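User: C-alpha coordinates for both sequences below?

Assistant:
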Amino acid sequence: MTLDEMIELKSKLGYSYELISEKSGIPISTVQKVFGGATASPRFKTLQALSKAFEGNEGYLSASNGSKPFMVNEPSAIYGVTEGSSALKYGDNTGKTLADYLALPDDVRVELIDGVFYDMPSPTSVHQLIGSNIYTFLDRYINDNYGECIAFVAPTDVQLDCDDKTIVEPDVFVVCDRSKITKPRIVGAPDLIVEVLSPSNWYHDMVRKLNKYKNAGVREYWIVMPDEKTVQVYIFEKGEGPIFYTFEDKVPVGIWQGKAEVDFKSIYDRISFLY
Protein backbone atom coordinates (compact mmCIF):
# COMPACT_ATOMS: atom_id res chain seq x y z
CA MET A 1 0.00 0.00 0.00
CA THR A 2 1.45 3.36 -1.01
CA LEU A 3 1.57 6.43 1.22
CA ASP A 4 -1.00 8.20 -0.99
CA GLU A 5 -3.38 5.27 -0.49
CA MET A 6 -2.90 5.38 3.27
CA ILE A 7 -3.53 9.14 3.31
CA GLU A 8 -6.75 8.56 1.38
CA LEU A 9 -7.85 5.82 3.78
CA LYS A 10 -6.94 7.95 6.81
CA SER A 11 -9.29 10.63 5.54
CA LYS A 12 -12.14 8.29 4.62
CA LEU A 13 -11.92 6.18 7.78
CA GLY A 14 -11.35 9.15 10.09
CA TYR A 15 -8.27 7.58 11.67
CA SER A 16 -6.35 9.75 14.13
CA TYR A 17 -2.57 9.78 14.41
CA GLU A 18 -2.95 8.06 17.78
CA LEU A 19 -4.99 5.20 16.31
CA ILE A 20 -2.57 4.69 13.41
CA SER A 21 0.31 4.63 15.88
CA GLU A 22 -1.49 2.07 18.04
CA LYS A 23 -2.40 -0.19 15.12
CA SER A 24 1.01 -0.03 13.40
CA GLY A 25 3.39 0.14 16.35
CA ILE A 26 5.06 3.22 14.86
CA PRO A 27 5.74 6.12 17.28
CA ILE A 28 3.13 8.87 16.97
CA SER A 29 5.84 11.46 16.22
CA THR A 30 6.92 9.42 13.18
CA VAL A 31 3.30 8.96 12.09
CA GLN A 32 2.75 12.71 12.22
CA LYS A 33 5.90 13.40 10.17
CA VAL A 34 5.03 10.82 7.52
CA PHE A 35 1.38 11.82 7.07
CA GLY A 36 2.15 15.51 7.47
CA GLY A 37 4.73 15.47 4.70
CA ALA A 38 7.72 16.34 6.90
CA THR A 39 9.35 13.04 5.95
CA ALA A 40 9.65 13.17 2.17
CA SER A 41 10.85 9.60 1.65
CA PRO A 42 9.74 7.28 4.49
CA ARG A 43 11.70 4.07 4.91
CA PHE A 44 10.25 0.96 3.33
CA LYS A 45 9.91 -0.82 6.69
CA THR A 46 8.06 2.18 8.12
CA LEU A 47 5.53 2.13 5.26
CA GLN A 48 5.18 -1.62 5.62
CA ALA A 49 4.32 -1.24 9.32
CA LEU A 50 1.98 1.70 8.73
CA SER A 51 0.02 -0.25 6.13
CA LYS A 52 -1.01 -2.75 8.81
CA ALA A 53 -3.14 -0.03 10.38
CA PHE A 54 -5.30 0.02 7.24
CA GLU A 55 -5.33 -3.68 6.40
CA GLY A 56 -8.75 -4.95 5.37
CA ASN A 57 -10.01 -1.52 4.29
CA GLU A 58 -8.66 -1.44 0.73
CA GLY A 59 -12.19 -1.48 -0.66
CA TYR A 60 -12.58 2.16 0.39
CA LEU A 61 -9.93 3.27 -2.09
CA SER A 62 -11.33 5.17 -5.04
CA ALA A 63 -8.54 4.85 -7.64
CA SER A 64 -7.69 1.72 -9.60
CA ASN A 65 -3.92 1.69 -9.89
CA GLY A 66 -1.32 -0.43 -8.15
CA SER A 67 -2.64 -3.57 -6.45
CA LYS A 68 -5.89 -2.22 -5.08
CA PRO A 69 -9.32 -3.69 -5.75
CA PHE A 70 -9.91 -3.38 -9.48
CA MET A 71 -12.69 -0.87 -10.26
CA VAL A 72 -13.72 0.43 -13.64
CA ASN A 73 -15.22 3.89 -14.15
CA GLU A 74 -15.67 3.87 -17.93
CA PRO A 75 -15.13 0.28 -19.10
CA SER A 76 -16.10 0.80 -22.72
CA ALA A 77 -13.78 3.80 -23.09
CA ILE A 78 -10.80 2.33 -21.24
CA TYR A 79 -10.96 -1.38 -22.00
CA GLY A 80 -13.16 -1.64 -25.05
CA VAL A 81 -15.81 -3.58 -23.14
CA THR A 82 -19.38 -3.30 -24.35
CA GLU A 83 -22.05 -2.16 -21.94
CA GLY A 84 -23.55 -5.03 -19.99
CA SER A 85 -20.42 -7.19 -20.09
CA SER A 86 -20.38 -9.81 -17.37
CA ALA A 87 -16.67 -9.24 -16.91
CA LEU A 88 -16.62 -5.62 -15.79
CA LYS A 89 -19.45 -3.65 -14.24
CA TYR A 90 -19.35 -0.03 -13.20
CA GLY A 91 -18.66 0.37 -9.48
CA ASP A 92 -18.69 -3.39 -8.91
CA ASN A 93 -15.43 -5.09 -8.03
CA THR A 94 -16.56 -7.85 -5.67
CA GLY A 95 -18.40 -11.13 -5.98
CA LYS A 96 -16.38 -12.07 -9.07
CA THR A 97 -15.86 -15.66 -10.21
CA LEU A 98 -13.71 -17.68 -12.59
CA ALA A 99 -16.31 -17.05 -15.31
CA ASP A 100 -15.87 -13.28 -14.88
CA TYR A 101 -12.11 -13.69 -14.97
CA LEU A 102 -12.19 -15.69 -18.20
CA ALA A 103 -14.49 -13.10 -19.79
CA LEU A 104 -12.04 -10.24 -19.29
CA PRO A 105 -10.51 -8.59 -22.37
CA ASP A 106 -7.07 -9.90 -23.32
CA ASP A 107 -5.37 -6.59 -22.50
CA VAL A 108 -6.65 -6.50 -18.90
CA ARG A 109 -4.32 -8.15 -16.37
CA VAL A 110 -5.81 -8.83 -12.95
CA GLU A 111 -5.71 -11.43 -10.22
CA LEU A 112 -8.87 -12.74 -8.63
CA ILE A 113 -8.59 -13.24 -4.85
CA ASP A 114 -11.59 -14.27 -2.80
CA GLY A 115 -13.96 -12.86 -5.41
CA VAL A 116 -12.20 -9.49 -5.79
CA PHE A 117 -10.25 -8.31 -8.85
CA TYR A 118 -6.82 -6.77 -8.18
CA ASP A 119 -5.04 -4.86 -10.91
CA MET A 120 -1.61 -6.12 -12.02
CA PRO A 121 0.78 -3.38 -13.20
CA SER A 122 3.08 -4.11 -16.13
CA PRO A 123 6.42 -5.53 -14.91
CA THR A 124 9.68 -3.64 -15.34
CA SER A 125 12.69 -5.02 -17.20
CA VAL A 126 14.48 -5.67 -13.88
CA HIS A 127 11.43 -7.55 -12.61
CA GLN A 128 11.26 -9.70 -15.74
CA LEU A 129 14.98 -10.48 -15.84
CA ILE A 130 15.09 -11.53 -12.20
CA GLY A 131 12.06 -13.75 -12.63
CA SER A 132 13.32 -15.39 -15.81
CA ASN A 133 16.74 -16.08 -14.27
CA ILE A 134 15.21 -17.67 -11.17
CA TYR A 135 13.04 -19.82 -13.42
CA THR A 136 16.14 -20.92 -15.36
CA PHE A 137 17.93 -22.01 -12.17
CA LEU A 138 14.93 -24.01 -10.97
CA ASP A 139 14.19 -25.58 -14.35
CA ARG A 140 17.82 -26.59 -14.83
CA TYR A 141 17.93 -28.32 -11.45
CA ILE A 142 14.74 -30.24 -12.21
CA ASN A 143 16.02 -31.36 -15.61
CA ASP A 144 19.46 -32.34 -14.28
CA ASN A 145 17.92 -34.43 -11.51
CA TYR A 146 15.09 -35.99 -13.50
CA GLY A 147 12.59 -34.56 -11.07
CA GLU A 148 8.83 -34.92 -11.28
CA CYS A 149 8.41 -31.24 -10.43
CA ILE A 150 7.79 -28.66 -13.15
CA ALA A 151 8.78 -24.98 -13.02
CA PHE A 152 6.50 -22.30 -14.44
CA VAL A 153 6.85 -18.59 -15.17
CA ALA A 154 4.15 -15.92 -15.46
CA PRO A 155 1.68 -15.55 -16.97
CA THR A 156 0.29 -18.92 -15.88
CA ASP A 157 -3.06 -19.08 -14.11
CA VAL A 158 -3.20 -20.82 -10.74
CA GLN A 159 -6.62 -21.76 -9.34
CA LEU A 160 -5.17 -21.64 -5.86
CA ASP A 161 -8.04 -22.87 -3.69
CA CYS A 162 -9.59 -25.17 -6.32
CA ASP A 163 -12.70 -22.98 -6.27
CA ASP A 164 -14.04 -20.32 -8.64
CA LYS A 165 -13.14 -17.30 -6.48
CA THR A 166 -9.32 -17.16 -6.67
CA ILE A 167 -6.99 -17.09 -9.68
CA VAL A 168 -3.42 -15.82 -9.23
CA GLU A 169 -0.43 -15.44 -11.55
CA PRO A 170 2.78 -15.91 -9.53
CA ASP A 171 5.98 -14.66 -11.16
CA VAL A 172 7.70 -18.05 -10.82
CA PHE A 173 6.50 -21.27 -9.21
CA VAL A 174 7.11 -24.99 -8.97
CA VAL A 175 4.50 -27.76 -8.96
CA CYS A 176 5.56 -31.25 -7.91
CA ASP A 177 2.15 -32.95 -8.00
CA ARG A 178 1.45 -33.31 -11.69
CA SER A 179 -2.21 -34.08 -11.09
CA LYS A 180 -2.61 -30.33 -10.36
CA ILE A 181 -1.45 -29.43 -13.86
CA THR A 182 -4.19 -29.11 -16.49
CA LYS A 183 -4.07 -27.60 -19.96
CA PRO A 184 -5.96 -24.39 -19.03
CA ARG A 185 -4.35 -23.77 -15.63
CA ILE A 186 -2.87 -25.11 -12.41
CA VAL A 187 -5.54 -26.33 -9.98
CA GLY A 188 -4.28 -26.31 -6.40
CA ALA A 189 -1.39 -24.83 -4.45
CA PRO A 190 2.13 -24.90 -5.97
CA ASP A 191 4.96 -26.21 -3.79
CA LEU A 192 7.17 -23.14 -4.24
CA ILE A 193 6.15 -19.61 -5.26
CA VAL A 194 8.47 -16.70 -6.02
CA GLU A 195 7.13 -13.15 -6.34
CA VAL A 196 9.37 -10.31 -7.52
CA LEU A 197 8.33 -7.10 -5.82
CA SER A 198 7.43 -3.88 -7.64
CA PRO A 199 6.91 -0.52 -5.89
CA SER A 200 3.22 -0.55 -6.81
CA ASN A 201 2.47 -4.12 -5.68
CA TRP A 202 4.53 -4.62 -2.52
CA TYR A 203 1.51 -4.71 -0.20
CA HIS A 204 -0.23 -7.19 -2.49
CA ASP A 205 2.71 -9.63 -2.40
CA MET A 206 3.96 -9.07 1.14
CA VAL A 207 0.65 -9.07 3.00
CA ARG A 208 -2.38 -10.16 1.00
CA LYS A 209 -0.79 -12.95 -1.03
CA LEU A 210 1.55 -13.98 1.78
CA ASN A 211 -1.45 -14.91 3.92
CA LYS A 212 -3.32 -16.39 0.99
CA TYR A 213 -0.44 -18.65 -0.06
CA LYS A 214 0.17 -19.81 3.51
CA ASN A 215 -3.47 -20.74 4.07
CA ALA A 216 -3.78 -22.44 0.67
CA GLY A 217 -1.01 -24.94 1.42
CA VAL A 218 1.98 -23.48 -0.46
CA ARG A 219 5.05 -25.08 1.09
CA GLU A 220 7.56 -22.29 0.44
CA TYR A 221 7.30 -18.61 -0.56
CA TRP A 222 10.05 -16.26 -1.69
CA ILE A 223 9.64 -12.47 -1.91
CA VAL A 224 12.40 -10.89 -3.99
CA MET A 225 12.92 -7.15 -3.41
CA PRO A 226 15.01 -5.73 -6.28
CA ASP A 227 15.42 -2.21 -4.84
CA GLU A 228 16.64 -3.51 -1.49
CA LYS A 229 18.58 -6.39 -3.14
CA THR A 230 17.15 -8.81 -0.61
CA VAL A 231 15.10 -12.01 -0.58
CA GLN A 232 12.64 -13.05 2.13
CA VAL A 233 12.01 -16.78 2.39
CA TYR A 234 9.06 -18.34 4.18
CA ILE A 235 9.09 -22.12 4.62
CA PHE A 236 5.47 -22.61 5.58
CA GLU A 237 5.62 -26.39 5.91
CA LYS A 238 8.13 -25.98 8.76
CA GLY A 239 6.57 -22.85 10.20
CA GLU A 240 9.71 -20.87 9.41
CA GLY A 241 10.17 -17.36 8.11
CA PRO A 242 11.04 -14.92 7.12
CA ILE A 243 14.67 -15.87 6.49
CA PHE A 244 16.58 -12.99 4.94
CA TYR A 245 19.14 -13.24 2.13
CA THR A 246 20.89 -10.66 -0.04
CA PHE A 247 21.84 -10.52 -3.70
CA GLU A 248 25.29 -11.72 -2.61
CA ASP A 249 23.92 -15.09 -1.47
CA LYS A 250 22.96 -18.45 -2.84
CA VAL A 251 19.43 -19.11 -1.60
CA PRO A 252 18.68 -22.78 -0.84
CA VAL A 253 15.41 -24.26 -2.06
CA GLY A 254 13.65 -25.68 0.97
CA ILE A 255 11.27 -28.00 -0.89
CA TRP A 256 14.37 -29.83 -2.12
CA GLN A 257 16.08 -29.84 1.29
CA GLY A 258 18.54 -27.19 0.18
CA LYS A 259 20.13 -29.44 -2.47
CA ALA A 260 19.37 -26.78 -5.06
CA GLU A 261 20.44 -23.16 -4.68
CA VAL A 262 19.58 -20.05 -6.65
CA ASP A 263 22.70 -17.93 -7.07
CA PHE A 264 21.47 -14.37 -6.68
CA LYS A 265 24.96 -12.93 -7.04
CA SER A 266 25.12 -14.44 -10.50
CA ILE A 267 21.68 -13.03 -11.32
CA TYR A 268 22.62 -9.57 -10.06
CA ASP A 269 25.88 -9.59 -12.02
CA ARG A 270 23.85 -10.10 -15.18
CA ILE A 271 21.42 -7.25 -14.52
CA SER A 272 23.54 -4.80 -12.51
CA PHE A 273 23.83 -2.50 -15.56
CA LEU A 274 20.17 -1.60 -14.94
CA TYR A 275 20.85 -0.31 -11.42
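Moving on to the next sequence.
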Amino acid sequence: MSLPTEFHDIAKRVNNWGRWGADDEIGTLNLISDEVVRAAAGSVRSGRRVPLALPLQQDGVQTGMIPGRVNPLHVMVQVNQEIFGPGTVACSDDAVTMGLQAGTHWDALTHVSHSGRLYNGRPAHTITPHAGAAFAGIDKARHIVSRGVLLDIPRALGTDTGRLPGGHAVTPEDLDAAEESAGVRVRAGDIVLVRTGQVRAYLAGDKHGYAFPSPGLSIRTPEWFHARDVAAVANDTMTFEIFPPEIEGLWLPVHALHLVEMGMPQGQNWNLEELSTACGETGRYDFLLSAMPEPFVGGTGTPVAPVAVL
Protein backbone atom coordinates (compact mmCIF):
# COMPACT_ATOMS: atom_id res chain seq x y z
CA MET A 1 0.00 0.00 0.00
CA SER A 2 1.47 3.36 -1.05
CA LEU A 3 1.25 6.49 1.07
CA PRO A 4 -1.77 8.65 0.18
CA THR A 5 -1.67 11.93 -1.73
CA GLU A 6 -2.53 13.87 1.44
CA PHE A 7 0.70 12.65 3.07
CA HIS A 8 2.85 13.53 0.05
CA ASP A 9 1.29 16.99 -0.20
CA ILE A 10 2.17 17.77 3.41
CA ALA A 11 5.64 16.25 2.93
CA LYS A 12 6.38 18.70 0.11
CA ARG A 13 5.34 21.65 2.25
CA VAL A 14 7.49 20.72 5.28
CA ASN A 15 10.52 19.20 3.53
CA ASN A 16 13.90 20.48 4.74
CA TRP A 17 16.19 18.35 2.52
CA GLY A 18 19.20 20.41 1.50
CA ARG A 19 18.27 23.36 3.72
CA TRP A 20 21.47 22.98 5.74
CA GLY A 21 23.47 21.32 2.98
CA ALA A 22 23.52 17.92 1.30
CA ASP A 23 25.70 16.40 4.02
CA ASP A 24 23.66 17.64 6.99
CA GLU A 25 22.89 15.00 9.64
CA ILE A 26 21.16 16.97 12.43
CA GLY A 27 18.24 18.66 10.68
CA THR A 28 16.31 21.19 12.73
CA LEU A 29 18.84 21.03 15.57
CA ASN A 30 20.76 23.48 13.38
CA LEU A 31 18.20 26.03 14.59
CA ILE A 32 19.64 25.86 18.13
CA SER A 33 22.32 28.51 17.69
CA ASP A 34 24.54 30.04 20.35
CA GLU A 35 22.22 33.06 20.34
CA VAL A 36 19.19 30.82 20.91
CA VAL A 37 20.87 29.14 23.89
CA ARG A 38 21.92 32.47 25.42
CA ALA A 39 18.34 33.67 25.16
CA ALA A 40 17.11 30.37 26.62
CA ALA A 41 19.32 30.90 29.68
CA GLY A 42 17.34 34.08 30.32
CA SER A 43 14.24 31.94 30.87
CA VAL A 44 15.63 30.80 34.23
CA ARG A 45 14.07 32.73 37.12
CA SER A 46 14.07 30.59 40.27
CA GLY A 47 16.53 27.82 39.38
CA ARG A 48 13.89 25.17 40.18
CA ARG A 49 14.78 21.92 38.39
CA VAL A 50 12.04 19.59 37.20
CA PRO A 51 13.01 16.08 36.02
CA LEU A 52 11.01 14.82 33.03
CA ALA A 53 12.08 11.17 32.72
CA LEU A 54 10.14 8.08 33.75
CA PRO A 55 12.05 5.60 35.95
CA LEU A 56 14.08 2.98 34.07
CA GLN A 57 12.83 -0.31 35.48
CA GLN A 58 11.91 -3.81 34.42
CA ASP A 59 8.22 -3.06 34.93
CA GLY A 60 8.47 -0.17 32.50
CA VAL A 61 6.15 1.32 29.90
CA GLN A 62 6.68 -1.32 27.21
CA THR A 63 3.88 -3.86 26.78
CA GLY A 64 5.48 -6.14 24.20
CA MET A 65 3.59 -4.56 21.30
CA ILE A 66 6.86 -3.60 19.56
CA PRO A 67 9.16 -6.64 19.06
CA GLY A 68 12.56 -6.29 20.70
CA ARG A 69 11.76 -3.07 22.54
CA VAL A 70 12.34 -4.56 25.96
CA ASN A 71 12.04 -2.78 29.28
CA PRO A 72 15.33 -2.38 31.16
CA LEU A 73 16.71 -5.66 32.50
CA HIS A 74 19.04 -4.62 35.31
CA VAL A 75 21.55 -7.02 36.84
CA MET A 76 24.45 -6.70 39.26
CA VAL A 77 27.67 -8.03 37.76
CA GLN A 78 29.67 -7.60 40.96
CA VAL A 79 28.60 -6.86 44.51
CA ASN A 80 31.06 -5.56 47.10
CA GLN A 81 33.87 -7.36 45.29
CA GLU A 82 37.43 -6.67 46.38
CA ILE A 83 38.86 -6.87 42.87
CA PHE A 84 42.37 -5.84 43.91
CA GLY A 85 42.66 -8.39 46.70
CA PRO A 86 41.45 -8.97 50.27
CA GLY A 87 41.16 -5.88 52.40
CA THR A 88 41.05 -3.45 49.44
CA VAL A 89 38.22 -1.16 48.44
CA ALA A 90 35.20 -3.19 47.30
CA CYS A 91 33.26 -2.36 44.14
CA SER A 92 29.72 -2.94 42.91
CA ASP A 93 28.92 -2.76 39.19
CA ASP A 94 25.74 -3.07 37.14
CA ALA A 95 24.75 -3.98 33.60
CA VAL A 96 21.52 -3.33 31.72
CA THR A 97 19.83 -4.65 28.59
CA MET A 98 17.06 -2.50 27.14
CA GLY A 99 15.56 -1.06 23.98
CA LEU A 100 17.01 2.38 23.37
CA GLN A 101 13.46 3.64 22.82
CA ALA A 102 12.02 1.69 25.79
CA GLY A 103 11.63 4.55 28.26
CA THR A 104 11.83 8.34 28.02
CA HIS A 105 13.72 8.80 24.77
CA TRP A 106 14.58 10.72 21.65
CA ASP A 107 14.01 9.24 18.21
CA ALA A 108 16.95 9.81 15.87
CA LEU A 109 16.24 11.01 12.34
CA THR A 110 16.95 7.45 11.18
CA HIS A 111 14.29 5.89 13.41
CA VAL A 112 11.85 5.67 10.48
CA SER A 113 12.05 5.80 6.70
CA HIS A 114 9.48 5.96 3.96
CA SER A 115 9.60 5.25 0.24
CA GLY A 116 13.10 3.86 0.76
CA ARG A 117 14.51 7.17 2.02
CA LEU A 118 15.77 8.74 5.22
CA TYR A 119 16.22 12.42 6.06
CA ASN A 120 18.02 14.45 3.39
CA GLY A 121 17.27 11.81 0.78
CA ARG A 122 19.72 9.21 2.08
CA PRO A 123 18.88 5.57 1.21
CA ALA A 124 17.20 3.59 3.96
CA HIS A 125 19.60 0.69 3.30
CA THR A 126 22.41 2.70 4.93
CA ILE A 127 21.01 1.34 8.21
CA THR A 128 22.56 -2.10 8.68
CA PRO A 129 22.11 -4.88 11.28
CA HIS A 130 25.65 -4.62 12.64
CA ALA A 131 26.55 -0.93 12.39
CA GLY A 132 23.11 0.61 12.76
CA ALA A 133 22.72 4.07 11.21
CA ALA A 134 25.70 5.09 9.09
CA PHE A 135 24.13 8.54 8.63
CA ALA A 136 22.28 10.79 11.09
CA GLY A 137 22.56 8.40 14.04
CA ILE A 138 21.64 9.68 17.48
CA ASP A 139 25.33 10.27 18.21
CA LYS A 140 25.22 13.16 15.72
CA ALA A 141 22.41 14.91 17.66
CA ARG A 142 24.75 16.64 20.09
CA HIS A 143 24.04 19.34 22.68
CA ILE A 144 20.23 19.43 22.75
CA VAL A 145 19.89 22.40 25.08
CA SER A 146 17.50 25.23 24.25
CA ARG A 147 14.44 27.10 25.43
CA GLY A 148 11.67 24.65 26.22
CA VAL A 149 7.99 25.55 25.90
CA LEU A 150 5.21 23.50 27.50
CA LEU A 151 1.98 23.42 25.53
CA ASP A 152 -0.42 21.98 28.08
CA ILE A 153 -3.36 20.87 25.95
CA PRO A 154 -5.71 19.59 28.71
CA ARG A 155 -5.24 22.81 30.67
CA ALA A 156 -5.85 24.95 27.58
CA LEU A 157 -9.00 23.02 26.65
CA GLY A 158 -10.30 22.97 30.23
CA THR A 159 -10.36 19.17 30.43
CA ASP A 160 -11.84 18.21 33.82
CA THR A 161 -9.71 15.06 34.18
CA GLY A 162 -6.45 16.79 33.29
CA ARG A 163 -6.01 14.22 30.53
CA LEU A 164 -7.13 14.03 26.90
CA PRO A 165 -9.34 11.10 25.90
CA GLY A 166 -7.76 8.29 23.92
CA GLY A 167 -9.33 9.32 20.63
CA HIS A 168 -8.18 12.95 20.74
CA ALA A 169 -5.94 14.06 17.87
CA VAL A 170 -4.07 17.21 18.92
CA THR A 171 -4.63 19.76 16.16
CA PRO A 172 -2.92 23.02 15.19
CA GLU A 173 -5.90 24.78 16.73
CA ASP A 174 -5.20 22.98 20.03
CA LEU A 175 -1.57 24.11 19.87
CA ASP A 176 -2.71 27.70 19.24
CA ALA A 177 -5.06 27.48 22.22
CA ALA A 178 -2.25 26.19 24.45
CA GLU A 179 0.01 29.06 23.36
CA GLU A 180 -2.71 31.57 24.17
CA SER A 181 -3.54 29.93 27.49
CA ALA A 182 0.13 29.92 28.50
CA GLY A 183 0.79 33.46 27.30
CA VAL A 184 3.81 32.27 25.37
CA ARG A 185 4.83 32.29 21.72
CA VAL A 186 6.86 29.45 20.24
CA ARG A 187 9.88 30.78 18.39
CA ALA A 188 12.68 29.45 16.19
CA GLY A 189 15.01 27.00 17.91
CA ASP A 190 12.57 26.12 20.71
CA ILE A 191 11.95 22.58 21.93
CA VAL A 192 8.20 22.13 22.33
CA LEU A 193 6.77 19.74 24.92
CA VAL A 194 3.16 18.80 24.22
CA ARG A 195 1.31 17.53 27.26
CA THR A 196 -1.73 15.28 26.78
CA GLY A 197 -1.87 13.90 30.34
CA GLN A 198 -1.77 10.35 28.95
CA VAL A 199 1.21 9.40 31.13
CA ARG A 200 -1.15 9.55 34.11
CA ALA A 201 -2.43 6.11 33.09
CA TYR A 202 1.05 4.61 33.36
CA LEU A 203 1.77 6.39 36.65
CA ALA A 204 -1.48 4.91 37.99
CA GLY A 205 -0.32 1.39 37.02
CA ASP A 206 -2.35 0.99 33.82
CA LYS A 207 0.28 0.20 31.17
CA HIS A 208 -2.17 -1.02 28.58
CA GLY A 209 -4.42 2.00 29.11
CA TYR A 210 -1.36 4.18 28.56
CA ALA A 211 -0.46 2.50 25.28
CA PHE A 212 -3.80 1.97 23.56
CA PRO A 213 -5.81 3.88 22.52
CA SER A 214 -3.68 6.98 22.89
CA PRO A 215 -4.18 10.66 22.19
CA GLY A 216 -1.44 12.23 20.15
CA LEU A 217 -0.40 14.61 17.42
CA SER A 218 -2.51 14.94 14.28
CA ILE A 219 -1.05 14.67 10.80
CA ARG A 220 -1.94 18.35 10.47
CA THR A 221 0.54 19.47 13.16
CA PRO A 222 3.91 19.08 11.35
CA GLU A 223 3.12 22.19 9.31
CA TRP A 224 2.55 24.11 12.55
CA PHE A 225 5.99 23.16 13.86
CA HIS A 226 7.61 23.78 10.48
CA ALA A 227 6.16 27.29 10.23
CA ARG A 228 7.66 28.16 13.63
CA ASP A 229 11.07 26.55 12.97
CA VAL A 230 10.82 24.34 16.05
CA ALA A 231 14.03 22.42 16.80
CA ALA A 232 12.48 19.32 18.42
CA VAL A 233 9.19 18.09 19.87
CA ALA A 234 8.39 15.62 22.66
CA ASN A 235 5.25 14.47 24.43
CA ASP A 236 3.93 12.22 27.18
CA THR A 237 2.61 9.29 25.13
CA MET A 238 3.90 5.93 23.91
CA THR A 239 3.38 6.56 20.20
CA PHE A 240 3.67 10.37 19.95
CA GLU A 241 0.93 10.60 17.33
CA ILE A 242 -2.67 9.53 17.78
CA PHE A 243 -3.01 5.74 17.94
CA PRO A 244 -4.82 4.07 16.21
CA PRO A 245 -4.18 6.49 13.34
CA GLU A 246 -6.66 9.17 12.34
CA ILE A 247 -6.48 8.04 8.68
CA GLU A 248 -7.23 4.34 8.38
CA GLY A 249 -4.20 2.32 7.32
CA LEU A 250 -1.79 5.28 7.52
CA TRP A 251 0.55 4.27 10.33
CA LEU A 252 3.10 6.68 11.85
CA PRO A 253 2.71 9.51 9.32
CA VAL A 254 3.77 12.15 11.86
CA HIS A 255 6.96 10.18 12.57
CA ALA A 256 7.72 10.15 8.85
CA LEU A 257 6.96 13.85 8.38
CA HIS A 258 9.02 14.93 11.39
CA LEU A 259 12.01 12.63 11.11
CA VAL A 260 12.31 11.99 7.37
CA GLU A 261 10.93 15.13 5.75
CA MET A 262 11.71 17.84 8.33
CA GLY A 263 14.72 16.29 10.03
CA MET A 264 13.17 17.16 13.41
CA PRO A 265 13.85 14.86 16.39
CA GLN A 266 10.88 13.79 18.46
CA GLY A 267 10.57 12.26 21.90
CA GLN A 268 8.11 9.97 23.64
CA ASN A 269 7.31 8.79 27.16
CA TRP A 270 8.24 12.10 28.79
CA ASN A 271 6.71 12.73 32.21
CA LEU A 272 5.28 16.25 32.02
CA GLU A 273 3.06 16.09 35.12
CA GLU A 274 5.34 17.86 37.62
CA LEU A 275 6.27 20.39 34.95
CA SER A 276 2.58 21.10 34.32
CA THR A 277 2.09 21.78 38.03
CA ALA A 278 5.18 23.97 38.25
CA CYS A 279 4.24 26.01 35.21
CA GLY A 280 0.69 26.42 36.49
CA GLU A 281 1.98 27.67 39.85
CA THR A 282 4.37 30.20 38.32
CA GLY A 283 2.27 31.18 35.32
CA ARG A 284 5.33 30.71 33.12
CA TYR A 285 5.50 28.05 30.45
CA ASP A 286 9.00 28.60 29.06
CA PHE A 287 12.23 27.40 30.66
CA LEU A 288 15.76 26.24 29.96
CA LEU A 289 15.62 22.62 28.81
CA SER A 290 18.59 20.25 28.88
CA ALA A 291 17.86 16.99 27.05
CA MET A 292 21.22 15.59 26.02
CA PRO A 293 21.08 12.30 24.09
CA GLU A 294 23.30 9.40 25.08
CA PRO A 295 25.74 9.22 22.14
CA PHE A 296 25.20 5.64 20.98
CA VAL A 297 27.14 5.46 17.72
CA GLY A 298 24.78 4.41 14.94
CA GLY A 299 21.78 4.45 17.29
CA THR A 300 18.32 5.20 15.94
CA GLY A 301 17.19 6.39 19.36
CA THR A 302 18.44 6.93 22.88
CA PRO A 303 17.27 7.10 26.48
CA VAL A 304 17.26 10.64 27.82
CA ALA A 305 16.87 12.17 31.28
CA PRO A 306 15.66 15.69 30.48
CA VAL A 307 15.54 18.47 33.04
CA ALA A 308 13.57 21.73 32.83
CA VAL A 309 15.07 24.66 34.76
CA LEU A 310 12.50 27.30 35.66
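User: Anything stand out in the second?

Assistant: The domain at 5-67+99-309 is CATH 3.50.30.50 (Glucose Oxidase; domain 1).
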